[in-house]
Specification:
heterodimer; A: 219 residues; alpha/beta; B: 341 residues; alpha+beta; Alpha-Beta Plaits; 2 domains; four-stranded antiparallel beta sheet; 11 helices; 66% helix; elongated; binds adenosine-5'-triphosphate; binds magnesium ion
């Protein structure tokens, strides 16, 4: 589904943040991406999400060479990828419900067609009561769950999550992770970036560890 | 931007304060919905994706209102001058004047009779009548005073010639025939005077069109600046729209809907102001001039009133300004989006 070959990345004229990264992500797989702060987890997710192009190497996503994907094809591919950003990026002037519904709304879908799906998903992540609240008054954990719901509403083939448990207490973090695992069982490929080693030790899954710009894989 | 202490359900859309502003918002709500609908949003009740308060709306509405007002006035002036020039054209072809200067030892009344007969023989001529002395005295009264005996003065006498068919009339031949047999005769078809007026009218029209185009260009430029500002202020929104898979076309439409509303609102205010200016100004001018009229202003512009043609022009300005605003925004947004991804 996704293949990296000798990928390197640098910002501007700076040093290489990622060096010689090679891996494959199979459909329906589940993996953690860890490493110390500043190791390049977010940068790697940016490459996966096609919001940056690698300085060198080859990236293939859904069987397509990332370098050859034109700006007109990008939206189509992004609709197949759900992403949760470290800083959530919810739109503050729209309600939680509208934020979560956004991926369907931009596809030109009629609200009557997706309303019940969105409400159901909000209930599932425990935000049913907070549906009509604006993001600025949500708690950190609630924002996080809203961001996750937004990433999931379009039924993506792959979910990328950057520190999805960064703002929540351990019990909620475990609950969120179980949510991701459940999702994976339903067929979604999942990549979760986190530096919370205590958390991922509770789960026995594949791990990508970034250190000094290099990647080690523990299956 | 968001008031942290108020419960969001009860927050008004923009957090507008004061009943006057809320009233205006309500008054313009149909325009807002129409703009979003025109821009391609079929569900106009949804929260706009581009936050309204992130667009420098009020300032741009004011600029567009002023520009539309000026565009309306220029267009109206051009239309009026054009209509008036058309009138002169038909006036000139309906009448000409033959003038005979008295010469010593010649019976002026006899000469007038002969001139009338010669003129009547020409093709295309209608009624021909001499102005008698009292008519002449009436013409000169404002300058020379009443109770004047013109026979004592060498005042030229006039023959008014109505033209039936300007196509068959040859003014040159008439002039030649008359001066062959009558001394001191001249034919005035008002040509020089009309030519000059027409030239003034043409220059006025050209200048007006130039100003009109400049005003539109300035409007577009302000919209470009405002759009760029809005894009810069909405980078988060744009990046979110990108990563949820929105097409650039969709993002452009979101901005376009907002700016179309601003264009419509500004255009409406400007055009209504211009129409009011015309109705009030026309009344005021008529009042100042009194019933007789006839000022130089009227000579150039004709009546100063909101004719159907002028009104149509205003509606066209409104449509043009809003369409230009939306199109300019779309182009600016698309050019900007092509550079980011
Ligand atoms: N936009 C950018 N321009 C320049 N350098 C950047 C940029 N983004 C990240 N970096 C640098 O790249 C390196 C990796 O950053 P990145 O955000 O990928 O780390 P991370 O593993 O996600 O860290 P954290 O766990 O704190 O989120 C850092 O040294 C950072 O300073
Ligand atoms: Mg990071």
């Amino acid at each position: 589904m996704i293949r990296f070959e000798n990928v390197g990345l640098r910002y501007g004229m700076g040093p290489e943040v990622l060096r010689d990264i090679s891996f494959q992500i199979a459909p329906r797989s589940f993996q953690f991406l860890t490493g110390p702060s500043g190791a390049g987890k977010t940068s790697l997710l940016r490459l996966l999400f096609l919001s940056m192009r690698p300085s060198r190497g080859l990236i293939s996503i859904f069987g397509k060479d990332a370098v050859k994907i034109g700006n007109d094809e990008l939206p189509e591919i992004r609709r197949r990828i759900g992403i949760v950003f470290q800083d959530f990026r919810l739109l503050d002037h729209m309600t939680t419900y509208e934020n979560v519904a956004l991926p369907l709304r931009v596809q030109g879908m009629d609200e009557t067609r997706y309303r019940s799906d969105v409400v159901e998903l909000l209930d599932w992540v425990g935000l049913g009561e907070r549906m009509h609240v604006l993001p600025p008054i949500l708690s950190g954990g609630e924002k996080q769950r809203a961001a996750i719901a937004r990433a999931l509403i379009g039924r993506p083939d792959i979910l990328l999550a950057d520190e999805p448990t960064g703002n929540v207490d351990p019990p909620l973090a475990r609950r969120l992770l179980r949510l991701f695992i459940e999702l994976n069982k339903l067929g979604t490929t999942v990549v979760i970036a986190t530096h919370d080693l205590a958390l991922i030790d509770q789960f026995d899954t594949r791990r990508f560890v970034l250190k000094d710009g290099r990647l080690q894989i523990y299956d | 931007m968001t008031d942290q202490n108020s419960y969001p359900q009860f927050r008004t859309e923009s957090g507008a304060k004061g009943t006057a502003r809320t009233g205006l918002r309500v008054a313009f709500a149909p325009v807002r919905y129409a703009a979003r609908w025109l821009a391609g949003h079929r569900d106009v009740r949804q929260t706009p994706i581009v936050p309204p308060q992130s667009v420098a709306g009020t300032a741009l509405v004011a600029v567009i209102a002023i520009m539309s007002f000026l565009a309306c006035l220029t267009l109206a002036a051009v239309t009026m001058v054009f209509e008036q020039a058309q009138l002169w054209e038909s006036d000139v072809s309906s009448e000409l004047t033959v003038q005979i200067r008295p010469t010593d030892g010649v019976d002026i009344d006899f000469e007038i009779e002969r001139a009338i007969r010669i003129t009547e023989r020409e093709p295309g001529i209608g009624r021909v009548r001499a102005m008698d002395e009292t008519d002449g005295a009436a013409l000169l009264e404002p300058w020379l005073g009443a109770g004047l005996d013109l026979s004592e003065l060498p005042v030229p006498r006039l023959i008014i010639v109505d033209i039936d068919n300007p196509a068959t009339l040859d003014v040159g031949r008439l002039r030649a025939n008359l001066s062959d047999s009558i001394t001191g005769v001249s034919v005035d078809d008002h040509g020089i005077w009309i030519d000059q007026l027409k030239r003034i009218a043409n220059v006025t029209i050209a200048t007006g069109i130039g100003i009109f185009l400049l005003v539109l260009a300035a409007t577009c430029l302000s919209v470009v600046f405002a759009t760029r500002g809005a894009m810069a202020g909405n980078q988060v929104v744009i990046s979110v729209l990108h990563f949820v898979g929105a097409l650039n076309r969709y993002i452009a439409r979101e901005f376009q809907g907002r700016f179309l509303f601003i264009g419509l609102k500004g255009g409406l205010i400007g055009c209504i102001a211009a129409a009011t200016f015309f109705v009030v100004g026309g009344g005021l001018l008529g009042f100042l001039e009194g019933p007789s009229g006839g000022s130089p202003f009227q000579a150039l512009f004709g009546g100063f009133s909101l004719t159907p043609l002028v009104f149509t022009g205003f509606v066209l300005v409104l449509i043009l300004v809003s369409a230009l605003t939306a199109a300019t925004t779309r182009m600016t947004v698309e050019r900007y989006l092509a550079t980011v991804q």
